């Protein structure tokens, strides 16, 4: 199969070609190790194209194709979970993640090597990064981390810090939107006052800085609204000359 479209990041064409190749040539029977490696390479390319295009319509077809390769190699399995998350197929992503964790725990029970522990750590980290997507509370995640028998203390500490950082970022997003709304309101108010005179402009600037830095914004936002309405009414009643 020609990989040119994939190498040129032409995801739509690469998706179409890899899907057609897998549909026509991929079977559960392998004639050699080389054919297995080749098929896995095209499978990874196909799933990566789904990630890049975020095509939810491709998930059903991909599921049928991947069934022929069960159990999935670790890298391909995590890639498939990423594709499900990108296409907002949360329920299936959660099932696949739980399945992969169960497989890894069974592997660790027989062979608790560093490589196997690292694979397990990566999946737990992926699950942790999307705990809100799976509707799991932060407290439940922390309890699971503490009780996990396959994570050492250092791993638990790293993951707990990551959980706190992830949660802080998600809390910061609404605050950033609120800050943006306040700054937009300030700009509107400054524009209104600038149409009156410089004295009002200076007052508005000082007021904007005061409101932006004070913590009690709930009451101050109400005051902003009143100021904007007042300035709008004043401007409508006293239009500036053309």
Describe this structure in a few short sentences.
By secondary structure, this protein is mostly helical.
Defining key terms:
mainly alpha; 3 domains; about 240 residues
What does this structure look like?
It is built from eleven helices and no strands. It has helices at 4-7, 11-25, 33-53, 59-67, 74-86, 90-110, 114-129, 138-147, 153-194, 198-213, 217-237. The protein starts with a helix and ends in a 5-residue tail after the last helix. The model has no long low-confidence stretch (mean pLDDT 79). This is AlNc14C148G7447 protein.
Helix content: over 70%
Distance between the termini: 68 Å
Count of domain modules: 3
Q: Quick one: biggest sheet?
A: none
Poorly predicted segments: none
* Number of distinct helices: 11
Strand content: under 5%
What gross morphology would you assign?
globular
Number of strands: 0
Global Rg: 27 Å
User: What pattern of helices and strands is seen along the backbone?
Assistant: HHHHHHHHHHH
User: Which structural category do the helix and sheet elements fall into?
Assistant: mainly alpha
Q: Average pLDDT across residues?
A: 79
Protein name: AlNc14C148G7447 protein
Describe the secondary-structure layout.
Blueprint: H1 4-7, H2 11-25, H3 33-53, H4 59-67, H5 74-86, H6 90-110, H7 114-129, H8 138-147, H9 153-194, H10 198-213, H11 217-237
Helix pairs in contact: 2-3, 3-5, 5-6, 6-7, 7-9, 8-9, 9-10, 9-11
Organism: Albugo laibachii Nc14
Protein name: AlNc14C148G7447 protein
